[in-house]
Design brief:
This protein is of the alpha/beta class. Helices cover about 45% and strands about 20% of the residues.
Length: about 425
């Protein structure tokens, strides 16, 4: 046991077993041995496990947002060994890890400068710290977003040392509001994409076109925190290319609509933006938030797949593009197979969500398999199964959405559903 689990864990398991026998009664040696080894096996199960996402939420924050493509996963192994991360193989001289991504990003977005960091929160913090510390940044009151708990724009602004100047109101901000707020201390106008909520009704916001005109007129930077980083036009989500045409510095996440690993991308095209990114990359904070080699490798692979147009191989992209006919066919197959195994269900129309704070209110039509039986007990049994399956409850039924179930997971899913439903209904 010590050879397999290590001394510390064996001691812990024996202590726990002895303590439990003190209160619950003493067992014989053979049974005690079995209990100790069961405890050890439970201790040895990795905390992080693969789950099947049948929730229909593509970028599910609790499930790690974007699943990586196979090619991105393979690249992790390459970077995990020794690699030419910071070595130019041609010249033998030191290379820059940042340069690794410039080629694909330039071809994909026509940017003139690029920096990848740990995540988009870091991208925004670095941008504001390096470019705006001690100066004024003008931002609309309608865009003071909170992205999940600890990332609130006003807090990030404070942390960076930039002085946030709020203009407009929650529902209306005009271009003139920005212009009127400009002082000699102003260093940037900032747009923050309201990626996880919508303000509807009596609303107005200045367009990025208007903001650009003002920024040029007063020779200040235009920073755009895009958040999701849509590559293609989708609903009313602003795209990276559109943003790069107008803003000097553009930031977004690697693991939202881009469908890559957790990362923050900072891109620029204008001369002012390129100069700004140069400043960012030299700032001490850049080292603290720099992208690690595994992420870098996965990001490069994801970008290359996009460049090659292999959208079907990028899970997020494939899920977003899935047509209802295909979902109906797959769902119908599961439905029949489950019935054959005695699991009663109905196929019904429903909606998938993009999730991850992207495209709120933008639902994708899907087909759901509604399992007969007590919804929350079935959902719990599924979650505790092996592999765990994450379902969602809708109209009092435990539902499975085929859209977010990865290719090749069908058989395992059906086995897991059969097992879970049978434990609940036995
Ligand atoms: C998601 C998001 C962030 C934070 O990005 P992470 O990659 O999660 O750090 C920042 N700003 C906006 C507008 C976002 O949508």
């Amino acid at each position: 046991m010590v050879a397999e689990f290590g001394r510390a864990q064996v001691v812990e398991a024996i202590r726990e077993q002895v303590a439990s026998e003190r209160s619950a009664g003493v067992l014989d040696d053979a049974e005690r041995g079995r209990r100790v080894s069961a405890r050890l096996r439970a201790l040895a199960v990795p905390r992080i496990r693969r789950v099947i996402n049948a929730s229909g939420v593509i970028l599910h924050t609790n499930l790690g947002r974007a699943p990586l493509s196979r090619s991105a996963v393979e690249s992790l192994a390459v970077a995990g060994a020794y690699s030419n991360l910071e070595l130019d193989l041609e010249t033998g001289r030191r290379g820059e890890r940042a340069d690794l991504l410039y080629g694909p990003l330039n071809r994909l977005f026509d940017c003139q400068s690029a920096l990848a960091v740990n995540n988009n929160a870091a991208a925004v913090l670095l941008t504001l710290t390096a470019l705006c510390k001690g100066r004024e940044v003008i931002v609309s009151r309608g865009q003071l977003v909170e992205i999940g708990g600890s990332f609130r724009m006003p807090d990030v602004m404070r942390l960076s040392g930039a002085r946030m100047v709020e203009v407009g109101t929650t529902n209306r901000t005009r271009a003139s509001d920005y212009e009127d707020a400009i002082t000699p201390k102003t260093t940037a106008l900032m747009r923050v994409h309201t990626s996880n909520y919508r303000v509807t009704g009596f609303t107005e916001s200045a367009s990025l076109v208007d903001m650009e005109a003002i920024a040029r007129r007063h020779d200040v930077l235009l920073i755009d925190d895009l958040g999701s980083g849509a590559v293609e036009v989708m609903a009313d989500e602003p795209t990276v290319s559109e943003s790069l045409r107008l803003a000097d510095v553009v930031t977004f996440s690697g693991d939202k609509l881009l469908g890559g690993p957790q990362a923050g991308l900072i891109l620029a095209r204008s001369a002012k933006g390129v100069e700004a990114v140069r400043k960012l990359s030299r700032h001490p904070l850049a080292r603290a938030v720099r992208i690690d080699k595994l992420t870098l490798a996965a990001l490069e692979a994801s970008l290359r797949q996009r460049l090659a147009g292999h959208f079907d191989d990028i899970p997020v992209e494939r899920m977003l593009r899935l047509q209802i006919e295909e979902i109906r066919r797959r769902g119908g197959m599961w439905s029949v197979k489950l019935e054959e195994r005695g699991v009663k269900n109905t196929l019904m129309p429903g909606e998938s969500a993009v999730g991850g704070g992207s495209l709120p209110g933008h639902a994708l039509p899907t087909m759901l398999i509604a399992l007969a039986g007590p919804a929350s007990r079935i959902a719990t049994a599924l979650r505790r199964g092996d592999p765990p399956v994450i379902a969602r409850i809708e109209k009092d039924a435990c539902c499975l959405d085929p859209r977010t179930v990865l290719r090749g997971e069908d058989e395992q899913l059906i086995d897991a559903v059969e097992a879970a439903v049978k434990t609940v209904l036995k």
